[in-house]
């Protein structure tokens, strides 16, 4: 693990819990048979499992019992970072080792300052624009109660969880898309990247729909969606939206594609969503999508659809509809 901060630590014998590592992390120094990983993002979950690790998609899926040590990989969202530390602490006995690893851009310095007010941090090492810090578990309850990954209820009575996209409420782009949808929806629709279910609820409120497939790679967000969308016409899929397929084509897709792959900017991610949508639709089916105004999705749409039209928008967002999947415009 040359160049990695992980090679600066020496985990003890016993089972090691890793909370939130991405598939891109170099975990070659950890024995798969002594390592349990918590990772709810489906592409990373599957890639880590393919490397022989035991991977749980949610805290509830972790095996019972304490672990010998834990490493928390710091996410960018502060509430989620605190929740990960609280979860690790709940699984460790007093005196056990907890490491927290993160980039400066993900808030490792502010996390270090917070932890120093709560427990003795006995080692901090820097490398590769980040830090890894160590503390031995204090006895007693030292993690603040509000660090525990509690759900919250937002506008409209929807439940969200720490770290899910737009956890404070429906994001403006999804609201713009919902406002531009037709009064009557097609019978079979897929919500690609459904998040915690706000857009799906708006789609289900329109007549015409018989089945709505909610596709989401973030297990925590999908669990919120299951609670927020109780309509029997809803079908839930924990899956990578960019490669999702169904046995039969549908006649509608709605989506607010991300342009960040959980942490890192990925300008090609929206293009992969568009290709996936085209692969799900019948030739007469229709796509409705929203995107930030500056994102150049029109050329990709023209490669996969015969007709592309902007139907709403403002200086921030554009709402686009497309039909004729598989019959791109001739050049």
SSE blueprint and pairings:
Elements (H helix, E strand, L loop, with lengths): L15 E4 L15 E4 L3 H9 L3 E3 L10 E7 L4 H13 L1 E12 L4 H9 L4 E7 L2 E7 L15 E3 L3 E3 L11 H9 L7 E5 L5 H7 L6 E6 L2 H10 L5 E5 L11 E6 L4 E2 L2 E2 L3 H12 E12 L5 H7 E9 L3 E9 L6
Parallel strand pairs: 1-2, 1-4, 2-3, 4-5, 10-11, 10-13, 11-12, 13-16
Antiparallel strand pairs: 5-7, 6-7, 8-9, 14-15, 16-18, 17-18
Helix pairs in contact: 4-5
- CATH homology-level superfamily of the largest domain: Vaccinia Virus protein VP39
Oligomeric state of the chains? Answer: single chain
Please provide the ordered H/E string of secondary-structure elements.
EEHEEHEHEEEEHEHEHEEEEHEHEE
Biggest sheet statistics: 7 strands, mixed
Instruction: Quickly give the structural class.
Output: alpha/beta
Low-confidence stretches: none
If you compute it from the alpha carbons, what radius of gyration comes out, rounded to the nearest whole angstrom?
Answer: 22 Å
Q: What count of structural domains?
A: 2
Q: What is the averaged pLDDT score?
A: 94
| Spatial strand arrangement across the major sheet | 3-2-1-4-5-7-6
Task: Indicate the percent of residues in helices.
Answer: 10-25%
The number of distinct β-strands equals 18
**CATH topology of the largest domain, what is it called?**
Rossmann fold
Q: Terminal Cα separation, in Å? A: 49 Å
The CATH architecture of the largest domain can be given as 3-Layer(aba) Sandwich
Strand % is 25-35%
The CATH top-level class label of the largest domain: Alpha Beta
Count of runs of 4 or more consecutive helical residues: 8
Coarse shape: elongated
């Amino acid at each position: 693990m040359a160049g990695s901060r992980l090679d600066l630590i020496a985990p003890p014998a016993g089972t090691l819990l890793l909370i939130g590592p991405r598939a891109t992390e170099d975990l070659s120094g950890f024995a798969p048979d002594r390592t349990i990983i918590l990772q709810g993002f489906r592409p990373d979950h599957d890639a880590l499992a393919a490397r022989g690790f035991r991977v749980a998609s949610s805290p509830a899926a972790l095996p019972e019992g304490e672990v010998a040590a834990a490493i928390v990989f710091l996410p960018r969202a502060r509430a989620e970072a605190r929740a990960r530390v609280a979860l690790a602490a709940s699984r460790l006995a007093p005196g056990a080792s907890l490491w927290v690893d993160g980039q400066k851009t993900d808030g490792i310095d502010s996390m270090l300052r917070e932890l120093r007010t709560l427990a003795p941090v006995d080692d901090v090492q820097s490398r590769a624009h980040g830090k890894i810090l160590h503390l031995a578990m204090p006895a007693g309850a030292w993690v603040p109660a509000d660090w525990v990954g509690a759900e919250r209820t937002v506008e409209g009575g929807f439940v969200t969880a720490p770290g899910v996209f737009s956890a404070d409420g429906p994001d403006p782009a999804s609201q713009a898309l919902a406002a531009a949808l037709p009064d009557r929806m097609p019978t079979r629709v897929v919500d690609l990247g459904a998040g915690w279910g706000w857009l799906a609820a708006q789609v289900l409120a329109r007549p015409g729909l018989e089945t709505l497939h909610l596709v989401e790679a973030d297990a925590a967000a999908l669990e919120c969606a299951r609670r927020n969308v109780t309509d029997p016409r809803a079908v839930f899929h924990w899956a990578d939206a960019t490669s999702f397929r169904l046995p039969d084509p549908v006649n509608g897709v709605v989506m607010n594609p991300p342009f960040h792959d959980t942490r890192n900017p990925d300008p090609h991610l929206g293009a992969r969503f568009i290709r996936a949508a085209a692969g799900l639709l019948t030739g007469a089916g229709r796509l409705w999508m929203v995107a930030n105004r500056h994102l150049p999705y029109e050329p990709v749409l023209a490669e996969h659809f015969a007709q592309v039209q902007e139907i709403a928008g403002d200086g921030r967002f554009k709402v686009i509809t497309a039909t004729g999947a598989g019959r791109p415009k001739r050049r």
